[in-house]
Design a protein that fits this description.
Layout lengths: L1 H6 L4 E6 L7 H8 L7 E6 L1 H4 L15 H12 L7
Parallel strand pairs: 1-2
């Protein structure tokens, strides 16, 4: 399975909230370490500073998390799409 991780060469954005008890930033970092050929942009969200209220593991899908999705879409928009 590690060969498949090594085959990934496109940029990855990986975000985690500090109040996520199931998948904290340390877990994200351990998982992303497998993508040795990809540029990983790790984002750690502090719910207290974001003004979005609690995020936890599933809060990304609540309407108040829209700014997080807008930031993620802007990140994708800033990267060129390779033909092929």
């Amino acid at each position: 399975i590690t060969a498949r991780f090594d085959a990934v060469r496109f940029p990855i954005a990986a975000a985690n909230a500090l109040d996520d008890a199931w998948a904290p930033p340390a877990s994200r970092d351990a998982f992303m370490a497998g993508y040795r050929q990809a540029a990983v942009h790790a984002v750690t969200i502090d719910p207290r500073r974001s003004g979005l209220g609690p995020i936890g593991h599933m809060g990304y899908f609540r309407p108040r998390a829209r700014p997080l999705w807008d930031a993620a879409l802007a990140w994708f928009d800033a990267r060129p799409v390779a033909a092929g």
